[in-house]
Sequence to fold (341 residues):
Amino acid sequence: MNLRSIFSVFSNDLAIDLGTANTLVYARGRGIVVDEPSIVAINKLTNKVEAVGHEAKDMLGRTPGNIVAIKPMKDGVIADFDVTEEMLKYFIKKAHNRNHLLSPRIVICIPSEITQVEKRAVRESALRAKASEVFLVEEAMAAAIGAGLPITEPSGNMIVDIGGGTTDIAVISLSGIVYSRSVRVAGNEMDESITQYIKRKHNLLIGERTAEQIKIQIGSAAVLQEPLTMEIKGRNLIEGIPKTVTITDEEVREALSDSISTIVNAVRVALERTPPELSADIVDKGIVLTGGGALLKHLDQKIKEETDLPVFLAEDPLSSVVLGVGRMLDDMSLLKRVSLQ
Fold:
């Protein structure tokens, strides 16, 4: 066993996909060790963290007045620095089985259109959470690597990563991003559209967890072969009492139509701005979809219809980003090539 492999046994490097909806942590040599919602429950009276991740998500919309469940990430960037730092500390500790002495090197994913100030904030949060060194990588690049695209070759690869807060679209060639665009319409926006639609059409107020369940169970981007319905519970706005309503997949599709057309248009714009040589590669290879939002029924079909290009779903859409950054931990030369300064 050489010295390098001894070090890799003790290696504590982590890759983090700090998402708006979920945070995933990949530990070198161990794979994905944390996959939890990006939510922190804080006691307002004591300012102490009561719960993080799954436990905090279960509290959403159900907390007493002195406990608030906060989502510190908004549209893929940090909206609340202190809470993000607490959340990072918690997830880093969890990934290292509570070992406080380790100072890991950390690679963190960020959306492509993030400002310098936001970049610095992510880096500082990680350093304060005890990282020894921090690398930032664009989400789309990580997703492409995680989806197994040949990004180091001199040919065009197009990736569409639909997360919770942002949809990142990129054309990658020779380990570099030739074109990238980030639109702040993704999973959360879809949930919000469903909430508003049901409020308008049925005078029913539903919580964000219910909206997410509706999207997952009966949401679709194109007409389904078999119609779906779902019973939902909420508060009737006129009578003020709890009520049950049955909604159809057609209604949900109508609610989601604006969000979907924003994403489809962003893909179209990306195709228009891609250099012709690379466009030819994309015609052959098609577009790869990753991220939780890519799991929306028939979204691949809808993009295929609108662009006339082959569209494929990555093998593990929810983990593509973190698996991609995880792969970079094992290949420092690739990491140095693709990380942002």
Remarks:
- The chain has three domains: 3-37+81-141+320-338, 152-185+260-313, 187-255.
- The radius of gyration is 21 Å.
